[in-house]
Amino acid sequence: MKGLEISKSFYEEYGRDMLHTEFPDIEGLVAVGLVGSGSECYGYDDEVSSDHDYEAGFCLFIPDEEVVDRQTAFRLERAYSRLPKEYMGLKRSILSPVGSNRHGVIRTSDFYTEKVGSPDGSLSLRDWLTIDEFYLSEATNGEVFRDDCGAFTLIREKLLNMPEGIRLKRLAGNLLIMAQSGQYNFKRCLDHGEPAAAQLAVGKFVDSAMKAVFLLNRRYMPYYKWSFRALRELPKLGGLADSFEFLLTSANDGDNAETKYFIIEDIASMVIDELQKQEITKAVCGDLEKHAYSVNDFIEDGEIRNLNILTSV
User: Fold this and answer.
1) Is 41 exposed, middle or buried (0-12, 13-18, 19+ CB in 10 A)?
2) What's the rounded Cα separation, in Å, for the pair 150 and 217?
3) What is the 3-state composition of the chain as percent helix, strand, coil, each rounded to the nearest 5?
4) Mean of the pLDDT values across residues 38-63?
5) Which residues pair with 106 in a beta bridge?
6) Which residue, 107, 138, 160, sits at the end of a domain?
7) pTM for this structure?
8) CA gap 238, 234 in Å, rounded
9) Helix and strand totals (H; E) in the chain
10) Residue 222: Cβ within 10 Å count
11) Residue 262 has what pLDDT?
């Protein structure tokens, strides 16, 4: 049973009644779920995951002190800590003070401030352009089991909707890096007799290509160690995962070099096909650099469009 399922079961078996019985006045103000850091929030946990920070637990997201005061928050944390110390064979850790745990009582504003730097999910243009996508992923992953008043979910949905101009800016920048590193510099590095530099070029190409694929799916790319797992789940171009893996794990000698060059071009071709399906490029060629600038031209907001194409990458 996955950690997310265990968390939900633990809440439904013990947490729901605790909230209803002991905190009827604030029950409707508390959002409950499992969101944030950790493989279990993505459903990627396995036997290896249990070696650290893995336990039965759930999050109780509460409003700021003017709505739920510090004393009530403390009582809620105490009530949470009194729940069974072990569930489905998983022992629970001793909790730290309010707001410093992956589970237990967490102020909604503290959670979102930690993840995206904003207590209510309102991001400036600069924020949207510079924040690492894995933070946005951690702020919006997992599952919310209940949110009667909808306040937590409202912020969550705000963050899930990346402005289209930002998406296109990020996409254009990654397309340009794909062109420079993969279509141009990989082969040149090999011609210069620099196989290590060629592999660095491959790494940059794969990283940017994966980011581009997530953007084309309107999804946030998670922390790198989960990126391939998440990539394989994507409906558009998720099948490229095996090609990316080959590029990263194979040598650059002999026939491999030519094979890798053709794989890079195949990936570029498939990405271009998707750009054309989404009608966000007018370029008609196999050169990703030209498509990068064409995608940038589709940005309606002049302020974003006129920024350097690599601003967000």
Assistant:
1) buried
2) 26
3) 60, 5, 35
4) 82
5) 61
6) 160
7) 0.93
8) 5
9) 15, 6
10) 24
11) 97
